[in-house]
Design brief:
mainly alpha, elongated
């Protein structure tokens, strides 16, 4: 299967940047989240990290939609300011005199 340019860019540029910038913080938050969920369950045994991942990714998705994307949208596509409308001169008053017959 041929790799697309997007996939190669993701693996070669985006993932390493994400890992170096926020990898440790995400691991800490994920671990705290998993421990909180585990403490709130009555089941004994191993924690199902796949379900924790699903919940965690939903939070990331919400954060992207509500915080990150709107901020990036403003940076990338700033609102276009319309030029101020030219002020129209008030219509001159015309004194109409009755026509003489």
């Amino acid at each position: 299967m041929a790799e697309s340019i997007e996939f190669r860019y993701q693996l070669g540029a985006v993932l390493p940047k994400l890992d170096s910038a926020i990898g440790a913080e995400v691991k800490t938050i994920f671990t705290e989240f998993a421990n909180t969920l585990k403490a709130g369950t009555f089941e004994e045994g191993e924690m199902d990290l796949a379900s924790v991942k699903d919940l965690f990714l939903k939070n990331i998705d919400i954060m992207l939609d509500k915080i990150i994307i709107p901020a990036v949208e403003k940076d990338i596509n700033p609102p276009v300011k319309e030029p101020p409308a030219a002020k129209e001169k008030p219509a001159e008053k015309v004194d109409k005199k009755p026509e003489k017959k």
